TrEMBL record:
SMART domains: PbH1. Keywords: Cell wall, Cell wall biogenesis/degradation, Glycosidase, Hydrolase, Secreted, Signal. The active site is at H289. It comes from Quillaja saponaria. This is Polygalacturonase. Pfam families: Glyco_hydro_28 (PF00295). The lineage of its organism: Eukaryota, Viridiplantae, Streptophyta, Embryophyta, Tracheophyta.
C-alpha cells in the first residue's frame, strides 16, 4: 500500500483501521496511531559550527569604560565615557577590548562608533546597557531612528554575557503605532523609533553570546556589511511589539546566523534587497512573524536576493513560517533559496510566497514583479494553525514563480483532522515526493512566455 493510498484512507474514512501484511503477519493501525507515525519529525538540529575567533599574536589592551568616567548606576549619562573608550581602543597599536563590566547598568544616548580602526576590536558587554527611557527622555537634537551605530568597522567582535535592554514599551505605545484596540487603530503624530544596534558599511564582524531585549524597533540591523558571523544570541520582545525584527540584513553578503533564540513581534530574521550567500541554521523562532525574505520591490524598486539557506530550525506559534514577500511593481529576482529540515509548531502560514504584499487595502495592481525562481522546500514537518492553508503560493500574473520544488513536506492541522487545500496562483513547480497535504495545484513545466519588460533578472 502506497503512502498516498494510506493518506486517502485516513482522511476519507471517519473510522479507519489499516491492516498491513508484513512477513506473514498482519499489523493493525488505528487512525490516530497512523497519524502519529506519519507526523514524526526529524531528529533535533545538530549543534552550530564552531565560531572562528579573530586571530592575533598579541594580547588585547583592555579599555574599561569606568576608567573613562562611566558610572554605571542606570541614571547617569555614560555616553561620553563609551565614546572615549572606543576612540582610545580604535587608535591603539595592538588589538583593543572595550569592556562594560558585570554588575553595572550603563545608560547611553544615541551614539555612532566610527572606524576604520588600526586593528581588530572586541566590544565586550558583561553588564547591562540601555538607552533613555522612551521618546520623552530622548534628547531633542538626536536622531530617534537609531541608538547604537557601528560605522565603517573592519574586524569587530561584539560579545559578552550581559544584556542590551532597548526599553521599548513607551515607543510601542506611541499613538502612531498599531494598537491592540478595535481594528488596530492608529493616530497621526511622530512615529520614528530607534533601531537598537545598527552595523553599517562594515566587514569581518562577529556577534556572539549577547542577550538583547525590548528594542523600540529592529534589534539588529546590518546594512552594507560582509563576512558576518552571528551565533548564540537571545533576542526577546513581546509578541505584540511592532516592527521588532530580531535580525535584519540589507545589501549584505556572506552572512552566517547560527544557534540563536528569537522571540519577538515581527520577523525573527528578515532578509532585504541586495543580500546573497546567507546561511541561517539552528534558529528557534517564535512567537514571531517567522523567517522572511522581503518585503522586496516596494515603490517600484529593484531587489536582488540569491543563495539563501535556512535549515535545522524550529518555528513555533508564529504568524508565518518561511516566507517570501514582494510588492507589486518591483523588479529583480529572488533565486536559489533552500528551506531544509524545519519543524513548524502551530504556525499560521508555514510555507508562503506572497507577491501581492500590501499593508493597506489600497495597493494598485501593477504588471511588473520581482521574479521568484529556484526555491526548494525539503523536510518541513509539523503543525499549522487551521485559520490558513498550510501552503500558499500567490505569484504574479505576468511574472509567475518558477521551479518551486517540494520534498518530504508533512504539515498537519494543529486542531482537528481536516486538511486545508494548499493555495496556488501562477506557481510552477514539482512535488518530488508526495506532500501532506498534496500540492496538486502547482503548475507543471514553465510559463510559455513572460513579457520581457516585466522580467528583470539579477
Amino acid at each position: 500500500m502506497t503512502l498516498f493510498q494510506i493518506f486517502l484512507l485516513v482522511f476519507l474514512s471517519p473510522t479507519f483501521f489499516c491492516f498491513l501484511p508484513i512477513q506473514g503477519r498482519v499489523l493493525t493501525y488505528t487512525k490516530q496511531e497512523l497519524w502519529n507515525t506519519m507526523s514524526q519529525i526529524s531528529l533535533p538540529p545538530s549543534p552550530p559550527p564552531e565560531a572562528v575567533a579573530p586571530s592575533s599574536n598579541n594580547e588585547h589592551s583592555v579599555f574599561d569604560v569606568r576608567s573613562f568616567g562611566a558610572v554605571g548606576d542606570g541614571v547617569s549619562d555614560d555616553t561620553q565615557a563609551f565614546k572615549m573608550a572606543w576612540d582610545a581602543a580604535c587608535l591603539e597599536d595592538k588589538p583593543g577590548k572595550i569592556v562594560a563590566p558585570k554588575g553595572y547598568i550603563f545608560m547611553i544616548k544615541s551614539i555612532i562608533f566610527t572606524g576604520p580602526c588600526k586593528l581588530d576590536l572586541i566590544f565586550e558587554i558583561d553588564g547591562t546597557v540601555m538607552p533613555p527611557d522612551g521618546p520623552d527622555s530622548w534628547p531633542r537634537n538626536e536622531s530617534k531612528k537609531q541608538w547604537l551605530v557601528f560605522y565603517r568597522i573592519n574586524g569587530l567582535a561584539m560579545q559578552g554575557g550581559g544584556v542590551i535592554d532597548g526599553r521599548g514599551q513607551k515607543w510601542w505605545d506611541l499613538p502612531c503605532k498599531p494598537h491592540k484596540g478595535i481594528n488596530g487603530t492608529t493616530l497621526p503624530g511622530p512615529c520614528d523609533s530607534p533601531v537598537a544596534i545598527r552595523l553599517f558599511m562594515s566587514s569581518n564582524l562577529t556577534v556572539r553570546g549577547l542577550k538583547i531585549k525590548n528594542s523600540p524597533q529592529f534589534h539588529f540591523r546590518f546594512d552594507g556589511c560582509q563576512n558576518v558571523h552571528i551565533e548564540n544570541l537571545i533576542i526577546k520582545a513581546p509578541a505584540q511589539s511592532p516592527n521588532t525584527d530580531g535580525i535584519h540584513i540589507e545589501n549584505s553578503n556572506n552572512v552566517q546566523i547560527y544557534g540563536s533564540l528569537i522571540s519577538n513581534g515581527d520577523d525573527c530574521v528578515s532578509i532585504g534587497a541586495g543580500c546573497y550567500n546567507v546561511d541561517i541554521r539552528n534558529i528557534t523562532c517564535g512567537p514571531s512573524h517567522g523567517i522572511s525574505i522581503g518585503s522586496l520591490g516596494i515603490r517600484n524598486s529593484r531587489a536582488c536576493v540569491s543563495n539563501i539557506t535556512v535549515s535545522d530550525s524550529i518555528i513555533k506559534h508564529s504568524d508565518n513560517g518561511v516566507r517570501i514577500k514582494t510588492w507589486q511593481g518591483g523588479t529583480g529576482s529572488v533565486s536559489k533559496v533552500t528551506f531544509n529540515n524545519i519543524y513548524m509548531d502551530t504556525v499560521r502560514n508555514p510555507i508562503i510566497i506572497d507577491q501581492y504584499y500590501c499593508l493597506t487595502k489600497n495597493c494598485l495592481n501593477q504588471t511588473s514583479a520581482v521574479l521568484i525562481s529556484d526555491i526548494a522546500y525539503t523536510n518541513i514537518k509539523g503543525t499549522y494553525d487551521v485559520r490558513s492553508p498550510a501552503m500558499q503560493f500567490a505569484c504574479s500574473d505576468s511574472v509567475p514563480c518558477t521551479n518551486l520544488t517540494l520534498s518530504e513536506v508533512e504539515l498537519f492541522p494543529a486542531q482537528g483532522q481536516i486538511l486545508a487545500n494548499p493555495f496556488c496562483w501562477k506557481a510552477y513547480g514539482t512535488m518530488q515526493t508526495l506532500t501532506i497535504p498534496p500540492v496538486f495545484c502547482l503548475l507543471e513545466g514553465s510559463p510559455e512566455m513572460m513579457q520581457i519588460y516585466d522580467v528583470d533578472k539579477c
